[in-house]
Amino acid sequence: MNLHSAFLGALLLATGLTSRGIAADAPSATAETASVLRATAAAFLESLTPEQRRVAIFPSGDPERKDWSNLPHTIHPRKGISIGELTPAQRIKAHQLLQAGLSSQGYLKASGIMQLDEVLLHLSGQDKQEKPMFGLRHYWLSFLGEPSDGKPWGWQLDGHHLALNFSCTGEQVAMTPQFMGSDPHEVRDGLHAGWRVLGAEDDKGLALMRSLRPEQRKRALINSQAPADVLTGPGKDKALTKPEGLPFSELDDRQKTLLLALVDEYVRNYRPDLATHQLDRINKSGWDKVHFAWAGPIGPTDPYYYRIHGPAVLIEFDNNHAPGRKDGPINHIHSVFRDPQNDYGEDLLGRHLRESHGAK
């Protein structure tokens, strides 16, 4: 076994996987997180006034579940209760809810994206406007059903460049779709100069593409130009159904390690048991069915895009936006992480209906 093979095997074991597609003693249960989410969500809701609860809670099957967007609230109005409407004590409980579902890495990214909207508020000059598009105040929490250990329920955080969706059914938790974006991607002026909230997603994608041999790059390249945006953004759940690009099986050991590390970057934004469970889903669906695709030049100054797509994973990253979508150097990214089989907990809900209500 060469060095790369040994390292790949170690990484697979570290993520709870084996190269033969069998979980390596990786627990798939998410009961602990389900319990923590229920308790933390209930504590947040108990802190609300009756009027705040009325606007924050929706029926479990309400269309609000899929009514999220990466656009500013002035373009796509939100429902639920906003961070700006909460008291400091309620905001603490809101952050505890984020921490209940996310890892420390994921929590820092999510809170960083919201804080970066404050930077954008000042960079855009809208901090002097009466009704600005940007800012930390403009992120909304909504609940789909009451927290329960018997009935399906969920919660969502939705605002500019950030959408988190958690769906709970009994002891099982689904945590996709997720949208994370950043504008500016890299802060290039002022006291925050050098700050990159989603830098690892960018750097690891570029590293994988640069590792490919010429014939592999030809297979991976699906378009000479990057798309204007991610293709499976809000309202486009089923826009991509067929994986394209370079199959996992055609990567060498070092390249497989880079791809696994890139997938890991997205999955590990969640609590360890959720992340391990999701990696187990990807593993069982077959890494040989996962493809890596690229569009555009290989950056870093020209627009580029990458995609990782398989039965249980769909990741898109698009760096094709100048600040404010105007002419200028690219510095504005969008990314989405989905499970095509279980977005919004659809697989969990279907199983619940079959087992509890005799649905077919």
Characterization of the model:
It is a single chain. This protein is α+β, with helices and mostly antiparallel strands and 360 residues long. It has helices at residues 3-14, 31-46, 50-56, 88-101, 104-123, 199-211, 214-220, 253-267, 272-285, 346-357; strands at 57-58, 81-82, 139-144, 153-159, 162-169, 172-174, 178-182, 221-223, 246-247, 291-295, 304-310, 313-321, 332-338. It has one domain. It is 36% helix and 18% strand. Strands 1, 2, 3, 4, 5, 6, 7, 8, 9, 10, 11, 12 and 13 form a 13-stranded mixed sheet that branches. Helix 1 (3-14) packs parallel to helix 8 (253-267), helix 2 packs antiparallel against helix 4 and helix 6 runs antiparallel to helix 8 (253-267). The longest helix has 20 residues, at 104-123. Mean pLDDT is 89; it is low at 1-7 and 13-28.
